[in-house]
Each structure stands twice: as C-alpha cells, then as structure tokens.
C-alpha cells in the first residue's frame, strides 16, 4: 500500500479538478480515495468504459493521513477505503451514509464470515462493504537469521541492529510492542502504553528505517534482514525473493479489514454505489487480488483463483488457529488517540 501523503494527495487532486477530465462522460464522475497500489489499474478503466463514469482517483498513505482531509470537508469524496477502526471513528463523527444495498446486489459475493467480522466496527453492516483483509507480521530473510523467526522479540533483538525495518504507523508499531509485552493491541491502560513506548524507544537505535510499503522493495533487494509488513505485501515479495518468509508471531498480531464507505457529503452517491457494486463482482475482485495480493473476502473470486499455491497459501488465507491469536483494531476514542500519537512522536524523536 504505497500511499502518497496528505499534501501531495491534495495537490494532485486539486490539479485534477483544475485540469478537468478531458473526455466527456455521460454519467458524470466518481471521486475515489484509496490506499496506494491497492487496485488493479485496469479495473479503473474497465469501470469507466462500462458505466461511462470518469474515475477521479487519489491515494493516501495511512488512515491517519486520510481522516483529517475527509473530516474537514476540504475535498468531497464519493467513496473511500478506510480500515476497520477508522470506520468506527468516522461513524462516531457522523461522517458516513448508509450503503444502499439495493444498489449493490454483488454484496452477495462477500463471505458472510467477513461480514460478521465487520460487524465489530460496523454494526448491521450498514456503512461498510469489505474490500480486502489480512494480517500484520514479520518478513525475514531465512538465509541471514540465526534461527527461524516466530516471535516479535526478533524486531527488538540487538543482534539485528541496522537490519530492521519498522512500520511507520502509530497503531501498527504499538500493536507489535503491546502484543510482545502480553497486552491487547487495543490497550488504553497508561502503564501498558508507557511500557510499549519505552520498548519502542529502546528499539529505535536498532531500526534501519521507519517505512510502510518501502519495506517491500528493501526486503526484495536484500537491504534488511527483518521487516514488519502486511500479509498482502508478503505474498508479493515471496514471489520475488524465495529467501523471504512471513510469520504471524506467536504472541499474536493484528487482523484487519479495509472496506468501502460513502461519506455523507459525497457529491455522486449513485455513482459511488455503482463503484462498490463493481468492486464486489467476482471477476473484478479476482483481478484486484491477483494485482495487489491482499486477501479477498469475495467467495466467487477465491473460487476462481487458479494458482494452487496462492489459493491455499497460509499467508493469504491463514488457519483459524492462526487468526485466533490475532485481534482487530478498534477505535479507542479521541483522547486515547492523542495519547498514542504523543507517545509515538516521542519514539520517533529518537531517530
């Protein structure tokens, strides 16, 4: 998920507004805000051709980059793809409108298990349609470690100083530290958060770089031994470099769902529903899965996967036992968000 950053994203989108769309589209446009490299680009063109709707497509780097822009209303999007806990926050702030399920008949393709999971942050599945899901874990070069990795302890181990790529995301970074210490990744306990902060501060001198998607290219190129990564990226890098392995640490990790939502101030709600319905089509979900390698909740798409290694991959589709060790993020409230961010800034100040 290579994301562009708030200011760059604003500039790009405003340039699109100014320069216009070129070709006239009979059914208008739809403004989409998604994680970077989180779609097969051909799918965008396919949607435009099928519906005669222009897609104005912009990207963000983290949920925390996306949220302030949406909350401010400075730019009005039609459809956005936040993560689970951010959906909860947007609902609490009354930023979302209900999905018109009559306009999304392909919702039937979404596995009921994932809809059930999504109810933890979207009760009744009223506001969010699952798009992709996955886990967070450790990617490591099996030719350069002293033993197979199975614990978060590896990313805090001084023997790997200068060879560790750490997630540049407040909730993800704290999740790793909290789970290693035996705490919930949704902890609001001040003592637990302070202990996690101190652990991350101790780790800081060991870290080669704080990154998000850059971990992918760096690990493929052999620039580091260990990296915290999302499972979808791990599938891709394992194809490119067979020496790389992915593990969900034994202490547990995060299991997440990203989904499509429609802001209340969306200027093109009808087109937003068409976009969501298109994304839920089996062949389209398969194209996206094959392009971005993030696990799909679409049952039709999964049945259509031809590559047996991917179809039955434990990275893409982990076992129930593996998932039982994981937790989903929940929205912790504005006050706790501020505590996390303050402590994260203290960690990053050390670098």
> Helix coverage percent of residues?
40-55%
- Catalogue the unreliable spans: 1-8, 11-21
What amount of the residues lies in strands? 15-25%
Class derived from helix and strand content: alpha/beta
- Rg is 20 Å
Largest sheet: 6 strands, mixed
Mean pLDDT across all amino acids: 92
Rough outline: globular
SSE string, helices as H and strands as E: HEHEHEHEHEEHHEHEHEEEHHHHHH
User: What is the total tally of β strands?
Assistant: 11
Q: Please count the helical segments.
A: 15
Quaternary state reads: single chain
Straight-line distance between termini: 24 Å
Write the layout of secondary structure elements.
Blueprint: H1 6-19, E1 29-35, H2 41-51, E2 54-60, H3 63-72, E3 79-80, H4 84-92, E4 96-97, H5 112-118, E5 129-141, E6 164-167, H6 170-180, H7 190-203, E7 207-211, H8 214-220, E8 226-230, H9 231-240, E9 244-247, E10 255-260, E11 262-263, H10 269-279, H11 282-292, H12 299-304, H13 308-311, H14 320-324, H15 334-349
Parallel strand pairs: 1-2, 1-3, 6-7, 6-8
Antiparallel strand pairs: 4-11, 5-8, 5-9, 5-10
How would you describe the overall organization of this protein?
- This protein is an alpha/beta fold.
- Helices cover 42% and strands 16% of the residues.
- The protein has helices spanning 6-19, 41-51, 63-72, 84-92, 112-118, 170-180, 190-203, 214-220, 231-240, 269-279, 282-292, 299-304, 308-311, 320-324, 334-349; strands at 29-35, 54-60, 79-80, 96-97, 129-141, 164-167, 207-211, 226-230, 244-247, 255-260, 262-263.
- Strands 5, 6, 7, 8, 9 and 10 form a 6-stranded mixed β-sheet that branches.
- Strand 1, helix 2 and strand 2 form a beta-alpha-beta unit.
- The longest helix has 16 residues, at 334-349.
- The chain is globular.
- Mean pLDDT is 92; it is low at 1-8 and 11-21.
